[in-house]
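fyi for ur records
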Amino acid sequence: MAPVNNTCTEVESFQHPSCGHVVQGPCHLKQTVSSDRWEGEAVQTVVEGQSSPFVAMTGALQRHKCTNLVVYQRLCQHETRVPCWQVQAHQVPKCRVSIVVPHVLCGHEVAMQCGDRAFGGYEPWKTPISKTWLQDHSVLDTTQPPVLLPSALKSMSWATCKVSVWFKRQSTCGHSFETKCSEAFKLLGGTDLPKCTSETTVTLPCGHEVTVPCFKSNEPLSPCSEEVHRNCWNYATCGQTVLAICGKPSAQDCCSKMTTWSCSKGHEAQVAQCMEGIPEDCPWCSMDAVDSELATTRRLLATPGLTVADICTVPPALTSVLQGHELKKALLKPYLQPKLDLLLEYKAWVDNRSLWKQPLFQPRTEWYFTVEKKENPTHKKHKAAPHKPLESFEPKVLVKTETMQGVSLLEWTAKNMQHLLTRKNPPVVLAGVGFTVRVVAGVPTMNPKGQANWIQSKKRDGFDSVQMTSHSAESTVFWHPYAIMATHKTTLTSAHMDQLMSLERTMRPVRLIERRRPGSSSSTSKASVGALLDSTALEGSQHLAGLRFPAQWDGESLVSTGTSASIQLELTKNLRFVPGKHDEGSPFAGVNYARTLKKSATELVEVDLLLCLELLHLPGNDEMAPKAALEAYMDAIEEQATATAHPLLFVALFRTTNDPTYIKHFAKFYGHAVGKWLTPREKQFVPGHEGQSTVPPSIGKSNDPTILQQWQDFASKERVKSDAMDELLDLIGIRKVKKFAIQLFQSARAFKKLSSKARKANQMSFNYCFVGNAGTGKTTVARLIAKILLDSGVRTKDIFVETNAQELKDKGADEFRKQAAAAMGGVLFIDEAYDLDPKGDFKGKPIVSELLTLADNKRDQLTIILAGYEDDMQEKLFSFNQGLKSRFEHVTFEDFDQVELQTIWESQIDARGWTAPPDLGVIVSKRLALGANVKGFGNARSVRKEVELATKHAMSKESFDGDAMHLAMDDVMGEHPLFNPKLKRVLDEIEAKIGWQSIKTSVREFIQLCEKNYQRQLAGQSPLPVMLNRLFLGNPGTGKTTCATLYGKLLKELRFLSNGEVLMKSASDFMGQYVGESQTKTVALLELARGKVLVIDEAYNLDDKLWGKQVLDVLVEKVQNTGTDDIAVLLLGYEKPMLSMLRDQNPGLARRFPREHAFVFEDYSPIELLEIFH
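which gave:
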């Protein structure tokens, strides 16, 4: 090449002499090569390993890189297009084609990039090894350890083999466990082996065998838990054997048999002595003592000339103090009559108590005193009357609010004497006696607030007095009828008080009948109440108010801890609602045992709760009996102030009320027991609960035989037939709807049997409002109800006129009247009736007015069925006129649960002639069940969409066989996110974008979540929630619309969207010209965007109180962001006004478009702008 002195820098095109490609460069460089041109065609293909087709250059031409693309044919036979300069500089990137080759370590096939097929030079085996695990899938712990993988290679995609193998403990116990192949070889390399958890059988000293984890087989074992039969502790009396736990002490094993008990005076009774203990006191003897005291009191009242000595004697400790100070006239009869009244009241109260819960009669006549107040010398300066000397315990004088609404008398105790000694002057005391039967013992001084209610409750419980304790006094307060009498009056000297310092107070608590059992002093001594739940969490529930629940529960015990284990075992064995194995036999064994136990176990309050749960578990429609048992249990625990409610009360309340709040309480406080006690349906209400790993692969459509039986019994008795009813009962799920349909038929038949006069006087309405999510069968059921009404005779024609609210508004009230006239004698069905919106849409108001008239005046000729979402029906339709709601009976269509969704999947697969592994139904149903019980969930429609997507994918395969249509895992799951080439191309395109660092991070996190969900579903777990709706926040020109297009492709490849295209709209496209048009436009655009990405640019313009608010409200209602909606909505705009809109508008908007999941588009840096420019 000739030297040129040209230094011109103007850009010119010229042919690069090294390869023949046309490049651009400075003019002076072009002049350099002008005399040395490339001959022939430019280099198009370069073959690796062959001689180079390029001409070697030096200097400026060598540095001037040719960016034209050439085909590079690799030795591995793969081709790629790379810049020409990379080939010349020998800087061609390694081959990125995905291939499958045997792993260098284990021999399993592994996917990797072709350029890594040499495994980075890694040689794991020092000597050749026979890879026997490729045949038997077992790696022995005696295998020689491989060479550790160098740290530099640990991040390679092929570094870990994920094939499952068995790791066999050849050198120890011989058990194997499943693990990933790469983990197995790490264990050979020195990683500590996990404990062997394989089950092994060990023989216990008692002879029973127990299965334990292998690592525990040589450790001390727990006591034997086998069930055995032992003699009841009271076998000599009852002759019964009972269930017991082999390894537990047998002293308290007992039966529930009623046996004869008798007291020393010959009273007899049938008592559960074994279970509740042998009575040590007799209730009849106690009542005999009451009668004896009554007779004595009556005799004294009738005796003339009584003295104090005839009624009571002064105790020795008080003789020296009171002797010679008798009152001249003690009021004997005013004391005896109240005593008689008190005894009669006590007897009447005891007679209303159950026999073995009666307190023992404990009459006490004790000595008391009160201190006379001295006249204050300052009274002389005032006109107030001086204190009158006390001569009796006069209630009119002594009863005060501060004395607990009774007469407060001091007891003769050392504490009271000490207090009196602090006085300057010797106190004058009025002494006497008081009679009590039932005393509240040891009550401290009470706050006046709530005192009156406490006193009334104690009086209702039969108490006649209360022993009070304050910092300075010990007293007894006597309530009406005040059985007290003053007998002496004296002045206490310090010598008297010193003499009385030895007197100790005697507390008088109520005694109940003692029941003696082995191992305890009596059965009345209950197990101490442990820690309680914080009751504030239960406030607001009418059923739980005031109840106390234990903070700890083992998840097994059915009865209180003081009850024999034998009773617990018998309950577990007989009650069918308790999970576990049950003996074959009568299904009513549990009910019978519980009722027997209720008769004998008077202290076992849980029996009614268990009876309620058992009755609910058994087939049948009797709702009254379980509720009655539940009410009896609740009454019992409310009556026993110290009793704690059993945790299963939450479960019983849910099963009788269907309020999921109770299930949530149960799961919150006793989460460890959820798996055992809750049904799969109930577990749906537990936040975050995964449920069972599998469900039965197939179940029948009519999954509630009790409803079928109810219809069959009625149809047989009435000799009626209804194909429509049979078809309805054959539908999947909708249990409440089926019960409603049967009741409708029954009431319609009964109504038809009335005379014409009676029918006229008892007009019935057959108008209904069907509420529930889409896909629950509302329209299907409405058509069947039309035929059922015809079959029952309440309607005369097989007419079903179907319309919707929007159609009615568009055609007007006149057309509505014509449709109603055409439906006379049959059914008029109005879908999405809430869209009539009479308050917000002037077109809907006349339709609703006409609807009101028809529902009332034509109810004997026409059935009107409205359908829609429950909250929308209330807010948009019924709130307009409450009278409208009362004219329609509400029928709730519940969302399908996981089992029902799986059944729908299987029935649709079968109907289309396909076959599929059972696991596919589990995966689909669990994925869909995440959206259940949320407004907008598609139910059967969502299943149909999944079926169509899976079958479409299967038919697109080259291996599809039309004669044997079969679905595989990838038809439902799609390709693994890490190995989907189409998805990879989209991700590569995003990664290649200049800037977008925040977006790339968000996309990677999204892909990681999808990959995790892929693995979770393969493992039988529910996927984690996925948010498809996004905020795109940033300034203009940062690539938001470009990213939206890529986002749509991304969601399509991940199977979230069926189409993946982008529908671009601005906020103004949603604006309506009249009231209600904005909502209509929004609904239409959302429907148009089904399967696509709906982009709303400059979305912050929707932040107003008029049409924009209406648009956002529709978005909140229609777009749930569940991952199964087949639509993604993107709101684009500046960050500040967008976040302001989230704060100020519908609160649901922030949940549909969470800020933490937003794509934030940062401004380009100067360097990034320069890159874009070039």
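The chain is about 35% helix and 15% strand. thats all i got for now
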